[in-house]
């Protein structure tokens, strides 16, 4: 994601939602250079938002959605690919584009993305 795309999303999509919430808000981001943007940080200050940057190379441990959602999705994706490859009798690390949506849907449908799981991700990361 480039800086302009992030800024557009942050200012035009996230800020309007956060403005409706009372009190201090926290946004957690990785150290991607496009997230470090003076205009975004000024808007955070203006709207009582703390933007917390996770340390580099720690996202897989410290980012709640990585822990609670994306890590399980990656594991499930590997299982789906193994099953798909075994049915076809081959070993492709990347499925053809026409197969990708169906296989991804299989992986996504198997996840139990509940509120409790997401909250547990924050607890597990200590946030």
UniProtKB/TrEMBL annotation:
The DDE-1 domain, residue ranges: 1-95
Source species, domain of life: Eukaryota
**Alphabetical list of InterPro entries matching this protein:** CenT-Element_Derived, DDE_SF_endonuclease_dom
Q: Where is the signal peptide?
A: none
Question: Molecular function terms in GO for this entry?
Answer: DNA binding
Please give the start and end residues of each transmembrane region: none
User: What's one GO-annotated cellular component?
Assistant: nucleus
One Pfam annotation, family name? DDE_1
Recorded protein name is (apollo) hypothetical protein
Q: Which organism is it from?
A: Parnassius apollo
